[in-house]
Amino acid sequence: MKRLQYFLYQILRVEEGPSRGLSFYFDVVLMSLILLNVLAIVLESVDSIYTPYKPWFQAFDLLSIVFFSAEYLLRVWTITCDPRYSHPVWGRLRYMFSFMALVDLLAILPFYVEGIVHLLGGARALGIDMRFLRILRVFRIVRLLKVVRYVSALRIIGNVFRSKKEELIISLVFILFILLIVSCMMYFVEHEAQPDQFSSIPATMWWGVATLTTVGYGDIYPITPMGKALGGVIAILGIGLFALPAGILAAGCADELQHHHRRQAAAGKECPHCGRPFDEH
Question: pLDDT by residue (tens digit) across 55-67?
C-alpha cells in the first residue's frame, strides 16, 4: 500500500525539468481539462450554443467532477509522502487548509451542494434563494485557479505578493485615506449645487474612485468653478497615487526573479551567467 501511495504521489506532484514521465502526462491532461472547463463555462452563457448541446455540457461537467474529485481525494491520501505533511491526521488537515487544496475543493464543491439541495426537494422546498445556487454555478470558474499549481510565473507572482504584503497594505491604506479626504472635500464643495449627485460622502466616494483611478465615467462630475479646480488636482494626484503599488510590485518582481534564477542556478538547472536552462546552450 505504501508503494502504491508513493507511486501515485509521484504522479500527482508537479513535474519539473525536461523529463517526460507519467507525472508530465498527467499534468498535460489535467491542464487541458481545466482549460476545457473554462471554455465550457464561457460557451454556456451563449444560449444558441448551450440549448441544443445541453446534455453534452452536462455530461462533460459530470466527467470533470469525477476526475477532479478523484484527484482531490488522491492528493489528500498521498500527501503524507511529503515531509511537510507526514503526520497521517494533522498533516492531511494542514494540507486540506492550504491554498491549493482549498482551490481543489472549491472547484468541485458547487456540484455536490447543488446535488444535495435537489435530493432534499429543491431550493424552494428548503427555502433557499435561487440566487444562491446561481452564485454556486459561477464558482466553477475557480477551476481556472488550479492552473496556478502548474505555471511557475503565477507562483512567482504569488511570492511577490507575500513578500511585499506589508508595503502593499500600507499603500492601500494610504489610497483609502486620500480617497476619504478628497471625497469629503468634494462633497462640501458640490453638495449645494448638486444635492442629487453629491448627496452624501459615501455617494461622493464613487466619484472619488472614478477620478483617482483616472477612469472618469462621467455619470457624476463637478459643475462649480471650485469643484472643477479641485477635480483637476485630484485627477493629477491619482496618476501618481496608483503608481505607488505598481512600483512596489515591479520592484518585488525584479527581486523575486533574481532569487528564482539563483535557486535554479544552485540546483544546476540554469546558467548562473545568462539565466537560460543548461539544455538550451
Answer: 999 899 899 999 9
Helix (H) / strand (E) element for 3: namely: helix 2-12
Helix axes 54-78, 22-44, angle to 10 degrees: 140
Q: Which residues pair with 270 in a beta bridge?
A: 277
Distance between CA atoms of residues 187 and 205, nearest Å? 9
Collect all residues with Cβ–Cβ distance below 8 Å to 262 and sequence separation of at least 6: 272
Q: Are residues 91 and 157 in the same domain?
A: no
Other Cβ atoms closer than 10 A to 49: 13
Structural domain span for residue 181: 151-281
The set of cell numbers assigned to 258 is 533574481
- Whether residues 136 and 167 fall in one domain: no
Residue 215 CB-half CA count within 13 A: 10
Q: Could you give the count of Cα atoms lying within 13 Å of 106 in the half-sphere of its Cβ?
A: 18
- Do 91 and 112 reside in the same domain of the chain? yes
Residue after which a domain boundary falls, among 100, 134, 150: 150
Task: Confirm if 95 and 120 have CB atoms less than 8 A apart.
Answer: no
Task: Supply the pTM of this predicted model.
Answer: 0.65
